[in-house]
Specification:
With 450 residues, the protein is of the alpha/beta class. It is built from 20 helices and 16 strands. The protein has an eight-stranded mixed barrel with strand order 8-9-11-12-13-14-15-16, surrounded by five helices. Strands 2-3-1-6-7 form a five-stranded mixed β-sheet, sandwiched between helices. A two-stranded antiparallel ribbon has the order 4-5. Helix 15 (356-361) links the parallel strand 13 and strand 14 (366-369). The termini are far apart. The relative contact order is 0.07. It binds ligand C2E and calcium ion (2 copies). Ligand C2E is lined by residues 214, 229-231, 241-243, 246, 259, 262, 285, 287, 347-348, 371, 405-407, 424-426, 431.
Length: 450
């Protein structure tokens, strides 16, 4: 007996499954799984032929905003358009694959020298920086690219991917729209950062961060008007500078909760000061990522309500970067904070754009003249005229100024002559824990300096 059956359909189904397992349905590019295989094959070839293999980790800059504002259909078309443009540039020695969402891998085999690679990387980067038109939308997009080489930078496919990824993150940090070649130092840096990030997460969970407070004084009224909250973290017996851990917290998405935790702690620790003097206020630094969160006002109000403290006793310190990213959103948010009763202070004034037309568009009440200007009083005449100008402009806009980083009597006299009497700096007091601040002797000591 002979059984004849048609296997065509089964074969087709098998092929389809194989395709789905190995290719990205949208761009038709090899997916992560197939790329991994291809990288392994490239490594074997490189060993056999004594050539090099390179891996480019390509991550689109700001793809999410494109998706959000133009819709997913446009986002999808953009990915296909990019695929096509890169594929057009490639020789048969290269394979482009889609790693995930807006990440691509470009594998280049049989490289004779690293020099020939530079030219290619540069032209891929330039191509990706070009404006694209999709459905009549002109879209400005670019990519950050990290490059790692076999055998110099890695000895396996996993490591090659990881190291090109690390190089890509460095390219992003360097301001996007560019490329970086992997170096061993990058690896150390990232490893160190990841370790710190994990330690910081634990510190948050175990409530191991604490607050320092630095008095803000007025030498006309001879009063301590406020304190600025400055976060501290002791990790393995050493203080980690906030200049180091705040950016890590921002990147890890921890800054909101850390700040709110610190505020809560401050309101407990300083409750006697805040209750005995309704004009005394706490100045809180808000990071740019935090300030744009939609329910920020409500969250801050809730914490204050728990301690029966009014919003007028909380001042929010923001920096100019906050205002630059998305002006409209920032403006809306600042107005809602202002309406909730918070006063807003512009920190580090003079170090960023310092556009004063700008200042008039945002509901800012106070500016803090950056310590870099204060430091140079007495040694740099042009610097002194900058401070004068800032002060006059602030006055015209109806804002008042606090000078920070005040360390000497000479600086105080100069600022007094301008009309500025609000100070913060080591001359009066360094940042300190609440236990220290609340001592009668400490407060007297600060006032004696006024
Ligand atoms: P900042 O907001 O400009 O804070 C002022 C910094 O100047 C503080 O450094 C303070 O200790 C220091 N300082 C004050 N007076 C003097 C002085 O007379 N001379 C000198 N040389 N320095 C003075 P700190 O505490 O190391 O904080 C550094 C930065 O870290 C802060 O700069 C702020 O940007 C950030 N930061 C600190 N705590 C927080 C926080 O709770 N949240 C956020 N988002 N950022 C924070
Ligand atoms: Ca500040
Ligand atoms: Ca400052």
């Amino acid at each position: 007996m002979i059984v004849i059956s048609d296997l065509t359909e089964q074969k087709q189904a098998e092929n389809e499954l194989r395709y789905l397992a190995n290719y990205d349905p949208l761009t038709k590019l090899p997916n992560r799984t197939l790329m991994y295989q291809k990288i392994n094959e490239a490594i074997q070839d490189a060993n056999k032929n004594e050539t090099l293999a390179a891996l480019l980790f390509i991550d689109l800059d700001k793809f999410k905003p494109v998706n959000d504002s133009f819709g997913h259909a446009v986002g999808d078309q953009l990915l296909c358009n990019i695929t096509q443009r890169i594929n057009n540039m490639l020789s048969k020695n290269s394979v482009l694959g889609r790693q995930s969402g807006d990440e691509f891998l470009l594998l280049i085999q049989n490289l004779k020298s690293p020099q020939s690679l530079s030219t290619l990387v540069k032209s891929v980067s330039e191509e990706l920086g070009k404006r694209v038109e999709i459905n009549d939308f002109a879209i400005n997009i670019s990519a950050s690219i990290g490059v790692a080489l076999y055998p110099f930078d890695a000895d396996s496919a996993d490591m090659l991917i990881r190291h090109s990824d690390i190089a890509m993150m460095h390219a992003k940090q360097a301001g996007r729209n560019g490329f970086k070649f992997f170096t061993e130092q990058m690896n150390d840096k990232i490893t160190q950062k990841l370790l710190l990030e994990n330690a910081l997460k634990d510190a948050f969970k175990d409530d191991l961060l604490f607050n320092y407070y630095q008095p803000i004084v007025n030498n006309k009224t001879k009063k301590i008007n406020a304190v600025e909250l400055l976060m501290r973290w002791k990790h393995e017996d050493n203080f980690v500078s906030p200049a180091k851990f705040i950016p890590i917290a921002e990147e890890a998405g921890l800054i909101d909760v850390l700040t709110e935790q610190a505020l809560d702690r401050a309101l407990s620790e300083l409750s006697s000061l805040l209750r005995s003097n309704p004009r005394f206020y706490l100045s809180l630094n808000l990071s740019p990522v935090h300030i744009l969160k939609s329910n920020l006002s409500e969250r801050l109000l809730l914490i204050l309500a728990r301690h029966h403290i009014k919003p007028s006793q909380l001042r929010l310190e923001i920096t100019e970067n906050t205002l630059l990213e998305d002006k409209e959103k920032a403006s809306k948010q600042l107005h809602s904070l202002r309406n909730a009763g918070f006063k807003l202070l512009l920190d580090d004034f003079g170090t960023g754009y310092s556009s004063l037309t700008y200042l008039s568009q945002f509901p800012i009440d106070v500016i803090k003249i950056d310590q870099s200007f204060v430091r140079n009083i007495g040694s740099d005449a042009s610097n002194e005229s900058i401070i004068k100008t800032i002060y006059l402009l602030a006055e015209n806009l109806g804002l008042y100024c606090i000078a920070e980083g005040v360390e000497t009597l000479e600086q105080i006299e100069f600022l007094n002559k301008l009309g500025c009497h609000d100070f913060q700096g080591y001359y009066f007091a360094k940042p300190m824990p609440a236990t220290e601040l609340l001592k009668e002797s400490t407060l007297n000591q600060v006032i004696k300096q006024l």
